[in-house]
Amino acid sequence: MAEYRLGEIERRFANLIWENEPVSSGELVKLCEKELNWKKSTTYTILHRVCDRELFQNNKGVVTSLVNKKEFYAMQSRQFVEESFSGSLPKFLAAFTSQSKLSEEEIRELQGIIDKNRER
What we know:
The protein is mostly helical. It has six helices and three strands; from the N terminus they run αβααββααα. It has two domains: 8-69, Orthogonal Bundle (Arc Repressor Mutant, subunit A), CATH 1.10.10; 88-120, no CATH class. It starts with 7 loop residues before the first helix and ends with a helix.
């Protein structure tokens, strides 16, 4: 199973790919030089790392995602809840809301999610 964790630098790199895919590896090097002030070797090192994690692929010099941004963050969130709260979403929400009150808008949004899932 792929590891759905990225450090800050890897996350910024992944966002560049998601925003520009499909992107040639040469264009990715230029983007990383401009946006992240990276050298070519740094770009290829990080690209290799995220490809090893099965998040992206570099096929004949064209970089694309194997997992889109929305899927990645959904899986990362699930992994966090599993590891930190024994998979209990109610425990996570209790911890999340223990420091601040939910707004009426947030409550409506959460209720909408609950209602949508009840219909499944």
